[in-house]
Structure formats: structure tokens, C-alpha cells
């Protein structure tokens, strides 16, 4: 569900396909990517009570998202839509190593 | 002898193979010094400076180390750059905590959280966090995080060793790592394997004595102040190892192993999907044993069908047309699982474990069988049941599996019944092997040896009795292989024996033609077969 209006909250869900769940390496990649955006970005395991700052590696690790769980992402801010799209892509493509 | 350590030998678990002979150097965390706290502002400033200094040190280490090590250190850097995490510590300082106290309590809280995880992977991250904690505290105490002075070629002995300390040590002249605790899945173990530094973990208590040490990463032994005879035997083992490594790499790439003109299939054992990342895995003839207990260790309780299906399907796709043998949950015994295994058994090794437990918990077993039946359409799947005593148990398992496949197909879901076999690990099953109508047999020599010899394999006091070449054990293996040969049923062996070159001649002579080994042992085993085939001995 993408809302195009500026300043709106963008949300999307994505399934965590990484074999071992949200462990150190994927968590570092996710927070690094999130930090490239101005937007305020939060994530949670679908249905969890609390939203978690996607830019905090400690909190992402503490989320203990298991393999196969659904991750909800929400963002607000000028580049929120791009941020959500980028994070969804990162998770859906199983945290590929950058070409750099 | 004057030192009192002369000739003492200790056994642990292998984390990285190789050999080291050198001075024994003990390393402690060394963060017990005192520090006098300043004003609130000074404390905050000190911590900020320490964090910056630590970031610089870690970045430098990452640049030197590269590859996997750099990724390990990246997590530490990410934590230092985590504003939410760091801010909470500065808040504690502004409320009156000293910099080191606030830092330590925040890190200790994280470590305790990871340590409480069921998942061994998460637990292994504890040493990374302890590393980061101690680095900052050492800087705050004016230590500057300087590298410990360790002579080249030393056998470094520590309780546990953080990855960054490992990277600070100059390993260019060799040396080895002997840990009293530690884990073969830790980051420091990965680093040791990548660098080819021998490493043995879980050595237990070692007296605070000894000047020189022999570390054998293959036999997982540490010998202190060795005698001339110990040294001679060690050098012999080291020489064999050295000679074999070079040629093993070349032999690994050959298409098949053969012995006396017969093809020997070499498969690999995996504990989890990531084990397929091992560089040598691609040269295996298939997967002889995929353990599935790792799925039970995931957080959030027992794994659902989808999680399991994905793991199984991933392995089948990796294997392409090669056979993949997946073992159903082998919980119980020394592997308790909350919500699954039965508590309070007086003798869990002889209790409700393996297939016995699965049949007693059909609601859990059915989920696994559904996932396996669905994955079966993606490749060459074989499924085996562990801890089978009687043919009736095997048939009960088969009946349940057949019903599940029929139900899935009726629902219009792609599924098929894979070939079904058993683990041969109960002596009764080995002796009455012909009564099982299984498509294949896989000898679980670890448990079979334990039951035949009546020795708990984790009990060090019984180590001399735990002889994998005991004639009783070889007799059972030979009988099983002989039955397979006559009945045209494949028989493999997937215990530790298969990965041990010293056991190979006996196993081949027992009639085994399929062995399943750890990926890290594949090259050496293939080479040993090649050598035996060309009439040579083990050396």
C-alpha cells in the first residue's frame, strides 16, 4: 500500500528470506541503507507491538526476526517512498553483497 | 618434573585444523585496572574520544584483514554508529554514571540478551560484543587498546578470544590458539580457519603452568611441556598433515574417488543451509546428511511448514540432481528442545528421542513431513529417520508420510513421497538389518559406537574406551554393508569416523562405498582414498 502524497506515511510488507533470519550481517546492511535516507524509518515483525528505528543496529538485532517472518516497514519524510522501496528490495533480494 | 605440567594432555573440540609448537602464552581480558571518574562533562567527552579511537582501530583492522574479517568488524562499527544505542549511554553519564560504568552496563545488557538466545549463531556474537566492550574500557583506562606482546609462533591460551584481539596478534610466523571455552562457530574460529591458524576450543580447565605447548588442531589436543616422545609423534602427525594438504587440493577437483576400481561416493554432512557456502562443498557427490535440528533452535518456537520448506528446497536446488539425504528431527538425548522433548527422563540417551519422539508428537512431525514432501519435487530427496529400533517404527513413520503426501496432492499442492531410509545407530537395528524394508541405510557411527561400547561420548574419562575401530563396531558396520550389497540397497556412513583418515581403511574393508563427511574434511578424505587405492599407506 503506497501513498504518493508528500509527508504521508508510506508502509509496505516484505518477507524475510534470509536463511538465518535477521542476524549481524543483514542487520548491518539494513541499517546502513536506512541511514542513506532522510526519512524516519521504522520496522517491526508483522504484528509486533513496537515499531523499531531502522537506523539502529542494536534494536534491529534485538528484534530477532526469524527466517520466513514478515517485516513491516513504514517511513515518513521527503524521501520516504524511495527509502521503503530500497529496504523492501534489500530484504526481498536476500541482502546481496554490493558490487563495489 | 620441576614444572608439574610435563606431558599433560588436554582434549577439546576442533575449530581449525593445523599444528603449532611454540611457547605457551596466556592472554587475559586485562580490564581489571582502576579508573578515576571526572566531571559529567569530562566523562561524556572521554567516552566520545574512546569511541572515536575504537572506530579508528577497528577500521584499521578491517582494512588489514579484509574479506570475512572485515564484515565481522563492520558489526562493531555499526554498533558504535548506532545513535539510539550510544545516546542511552550518554544519558546514563549525564545522570551521574562514570563513562566506563555506563558503557559496560549497556554492553553487558546486550551480551546477556544475546547469551539467552537459543540460537548458537546469536550466542557466538557475544564474543564480538565483549570485544567491543573491553576495547573501549581499555582505551578509557589509558591502555590505548595496544596489542598484547606475544612472541611469534606462540600457542595462545585464553578463556575466549575476541576477533579484534586475534587480528592484533602477528600470526605470520604461525602459532595456534587454545581456548578453554569458545565455540567452533565463533567469528574468531572463522578467522582462524581463513588464516590457517590451528585452533582448539572447549579445552576446559587447564592448570596455570607450562612453558611450551603442542597444539594439534586435527586431533583437538593440547600437550604441555611435551616429552621427547610426545614431540616426535607430534612432528610426525604435523609432517603427514603438511604433505597431504598440497596434494589434497589437486585431488579434490577430480570427478570421483575410487578404490580398487570401485567408485567411492563422497557426500557431505551439513548442520544448516549456510554450510553449503564452504568452498569445498561443490566437489561433493551430494549431501549424505542434512541435520534439521537447527530449525528447532530458531527463536519463536517450533518452525512452521513454510520456514522448513524453504530451507529444504534451498538445499535441494543447490544440489541440483545430486542426492540430498535429510534426517528428520533428531531431538532428545543430548539435544533437548523446549516444547518438544520430554523433560525429566532418567536416561535421555535411552529415552524418547529421534523417531520415537517424532511418532509421539505427530502434530510436530507432520509439519516437517509436509515441508519435506513439498520440497521433494525440487530435486533428488531422500529422507531418513533417526534412532530406529524396530521395523514397526519405520513403517509407522512411512504410513504417516504416505498419508501426508496424499493429503497434499488432494489439496492440489505439488508434493511427492521421497525415498525413505533409516539411520543405523541402535545396535538392534544393525543386527536385524534385513528386517527393515528401507530404500537406504545410513550408519550413524557416533551413536552406534556409544551404544555398542556403552560409553557416553562426551565423558572424557571414557575416551580410551571410545575406540571407533573396536571390532564389535566394525562387525556391525560390515554386516550392514554386506546386507546392502546383497539386497541392492545403498549403505553409507555419516559419523565422525568417515571424516577420520585413520578409520578409512577399516571402513572400505568393511565394504562401505559411500561416506558422508564434513565439507572441511572432503579434500583430505578424497586424497586418502586415492592414496590407499594406489597401494600407499595413510602417510
Net shape of chain A: globular
Mean pLDDT of chain A: 85
Mean pLDDT level of chain B: 87
Proportion of residues in extended strands of chain A = 15-25%
What spatial order of strands do you see in the largest sheet of chain A? Answer: 1-4-2-3
Distance between the termini of chain B: 34 Å
Q: Major β-sheet of chain B, in short?
A: 9 strands, mixed
Low-pLDDT windows of residues of chain B: none
**Number of helices in the DSSP assignment of chain A:** 3
Q: What's the Cα radius of gyration of chain A?
A: 12 Å
Biggest sheet character of chain A: 4 strands, antiparallel
Oligomer: heterodimer
Overall number of strands of chain A: 4
Given helix and strand content, the structural type of chain B is: alpha/beta
* Shape, principal axes of CA atoms of chain B: globular
Rg of chain B (C-alpha, Å): 26 Å
**Pair with the biggest interface:** A-B, 24 and 32 residues
Level of helix content of chain A?
25-40%
Strand content of chain B: 15-25%
Q: How do the helices and strands follow one another from N- to C-terminus of chain A? A: EHEEHEH
Distance between the termini of chain A: 32 Å
Could you walk me through the main structural features you see in this protein, from its secondary elements to its overall organization?
The complex is a heterodimer of chains A (100) and B (539). Chain A has three helices and four strands. Chain A has helices at residues 24-35, 57-63, 80-92, and strands at 10-15, 40-45, 52-53, 70-76. In chain A, strands 1-4-2-3 form a four-stranded antiparallel β-sheet, covered by helices on one side. In chain A, α1 (24-35) runs antiparallel to α3. Chain A is globular and about 35 Å long. Mean pLDDT of chain A is 85; it is low at 1-5. With 539 residues, chain B is α/β, with parallel strands linked by helices. Chain B has 18 helices and 17 strands. In chain B, strands 9, 10, 11, 12, 13, 14, 15, 16 and 17 form a nine-stranded mixed β-sheet that branches. The longest helix of chain B has 26 residues, at 40-65. Chain B is globular and about 80 Å long. The two termini of chain B are 34 Å apart.
